Prior knowledge:
The complex is a heterodimer of chains A (346) and B (586). With 346 residues, chain A is an all-alpha fold. Chain A is built from 15 helices and two strands. The termini of chain A are far apart. Helices cover 55% and strands 12% of the residues of chain B. Chain B folds into three domains: 207 residues, no CATH class; 164 residues, P-loop containing nucleotide triphosphate hydrolases (Rossmann fold), CATH 3.40.50.300; 76 residues, no CATH class. Chain B has 586 residues and is an alpha/beta fold. Chain B has a six-stranded mixed sheet, sandwiched between helices. A four-stranded antiparallel sheet of chain B has the order 6-5-8-9, with helices on one face. In chain B, strands 1-4 form a two-stranded antiparallel sheet. Chain B starts with a helix and ends with a helix. The radius of gyration of chain B is 28 Å and the shape is elongated. In chain B, a hairpin with a 2-residue loop joins β13 and β14. The model of chain B has no long low-confidence stretch (mean pLDDT 86). The chains are: A mainly alpha (346), B alpha/beta (586). At the A-B interface, α7, α12, α14 and α15 of A face α4, α5, α8, α10 and α12 of B.
Amino acid sequence: MNLDTVLWLVQDGISNGAIYALLALALLLVFAVTRVIFVPQGEFIAYAALSLTMLQAGQLPGTVYVLVGGGLLAAAYEIAAALRARATARLPRVLAFYVLLPVAIALLAWWAAPRKFDLWVQALIVLGLVVPLGPILYRIAYQPLANASVVVLFIVSMAVHYALTGLGLLFFGGEGLRSAAFSDAQFKLGVVNVTAQSVLVVLASVLVMLALWLFFTRSLYGKALRATAVNRTGARLVGIPAELSGSLSFLLAAFIGAVSGVLVAPIATIYYDTGFLIGLKGFVGAILGGMASYPLAAVGALAVGLLESFSSFWASAFKETIVFTAIIPVLVWRSLTSHHVEDEEE
Amino acid sequence: MRGRVLLAAFLAFIALAPLVLPPFYVTLFNYIGLATLVSLGLVLLTGVAGLVSFGQQAFVGLAAYTTAVLTTQYGASPWITLFAGLAVTAAVALFLGVITLRLSGHYLSLSTIAWGIALYYLFGNLQFLGQYSGIDNVPPVTLFGWSLDTGGRSYYLIWCVTLAALIAAQNLLDSRSGRAIRALRFRSVMAESFGVRTASLKVVVFLYAALLAGLSGWLYAHFLRFVSPQAFGVNAGIDYLFMAVVGGASQVWGAVVGASLLTVLKEWLKDILPKLFGQSGSYEIIVFGVLMVLLLHRTRDGLMPALARLVPAPKVPPAVAPAAALARRALPPAGEPLLEVQAAEKHFGGLVAVSGLSFALRSGEILGLIGPNGAGKSTMFNLITGVLRAGAGEIRFRGERLDRLASSEIARRGICRTFQHVNLISAMSVLENVALGAHLRGRQGTVAAMLRLERAEEAQLLAEAARQIERVGLSEHLHQAAGSLPLGRQRVVEIARALAGDPVLLLLDEPAAGLRFAEKQALAELLRKLRAEGMTILLVEHDMEFVMGLVDRLVVMDFGEKLAEGLPREIQRNPAVLEAYLGGIE
């Protein structure tokens, strides 16, 4: 293996790792705020990537049906809850978010699809299609179980993953799709050829991370989320509603998923079920980072990207096996250093 | 009675089914039996012990591949490869269990997904495993020269194994080990303090679930006579878990219900949905996912409790059979130094809960530990029982240091406790809860329990539990679920459980809270009697009337430090104590 190959693999590993890092951050965020192990995060990626590719082909992405259908279902839950509590004042706002907004975005996508706008415009439409799915999912599947144990929430996540993957198959079909690149440019950096696409991926990931950092340190909502992550009961006592924190963290997760999907669409062929594996690699990164620290999770995710890229060179058939067994040494180390006995909450 | 009839009807149905049903249904039943085995393991692992695995299909696959390779490439007999398959499964499960089970539950669940994926791609890419096309021509099992080479013939083997596993699992749950397993999910801290080594027990349950999956894999390979990675994909693992949850994850027969329901539903949906959507694909996962979310919104107990209501419980629960008394521990002579706490320290971040506290306890006395709320009494309790680890200082019991030992080891030295926040297993009867206290006085393990070889010892344990329940005056509640008792009574159950452990030193954390006057008097009487028998008692209590008339000496704590120590009437006159309790004079 010569230096060129090494550098090429490193470049490939870093651009994949940057996406895994974004996912690892989203997964940690959702877990810290809601205690949900959010396996379906991967489905946002697949939905976003496949929607982008369909828009490029001038077709209406099936995501619109999931969005409008899910929105209606979430609205139904809200209406039922409002009637039961005899508190209908919030309803107009809720309906605007769960019904009007999805319908408007769906109509926009329907209007824009045949017109084949610029890739950047299409990417924005994809964000509009996928991001509201986060709060909608939270409302339908997780909010009724907000007090359930981590274990029950995990099972719900697998169920949601099932439903979304199946819907993905229904609306996108079983074929793999790959989108056109944002830019085909290449330039030489020293001895290595760098593709503009991989620079874009890394740049976008860093930008999103920076935006998240600003959000969490500067904005009131960001601070509210951090408070909830530190102490849920305490946050509720000072007036931060658990539903809002949950909804907001899912919104951010969906946003990160959608961005990752748009970034990954041109560099990999995406099938309806590819998102699961990509999302889980985000988890591997988060576990490598100890499931607690955001910077460590990002580093862990980069390591996953590099490991994947080098193992696909040396032993491509065993790439997935190698990546997913990488957590074993970390688990061994963690279990040797942990001594506590704890009870699950009832 | 109706339960017996139902069981007999079920057995008759299973026995006759292949004689009357067409082959398609016999095959379907074979799949149900195979799935039941796997989800039965999950019932114990997930429903009872609270550990979620999405990776059981990997254990099914390991055993299936082991037997397929050994029988096709080395001509080994399936009866030998059965043990080889189970050995491989056990080795892998043991390794994975040891590295994940000490961590929080979601680590186990995440790693089960990870190793499921890792193994799937390994199966699919290894040359000698036939890659994605798998291994065919796996020989059938031969039994007494009779080849089980058709679905109908495999049927009886599969269902005999499945039924045996169901009965063994039921036996296990109704035993000394079973009670400990049932404490793992919500009551690990309590179980530890009665000597259960919860970490190893979790590994045992995990191993058990893996072995059932391995058994299913061996049967699968020889019934289908073909193995390929597709059967052991991640979705198979999710399906197994859903089966256990749908059936009712804490009940053994829920495994049959869940496996039957989902296997049949899947078959039916695979048929109907592609026609509905006009294209082929496994759309049944949409329905499974949605059903699962809806089910968990309504109940976390699955369908089994609803079905169980159809079979009324026997009106008169069986009486506890008389049995020989268990051996008792020799108590140290009165007046011997028993427990010595020297300069114990415990900080929680910046909060000092216990600071430089020293006191000693002599054999045969009742020492009261009192102090205002937040004085650090319960923390001190947790330091002695090993629930918390002291930051500095020494705690010695009969000369041996306790402060570096785990709770379960401290329990082995004859220290039993009650909990300030009642720590009973609500769904278990009072009798079973108290019997858990006697855990260390039995020694029969899981295998003996499954085979019912421990009945003599079990009778002794239950008889001892019943004796302690009678002693604290709760005989009328023997078979009631502990959670259905009023809180005051539950505290008394806690005392009976601690007594069942045959303690040298009894630690009581606010035992009189919530008791009525007459009940308090009875409790004080009981404690005096225990002292007369030579037991040593450390009592944390708020009720001064109760404490003053009972204890020999008092230690008063305030802000983590010792404020005073002495006889009750000295303490009652101590100005520092009065100030701490009643507030100083400004």
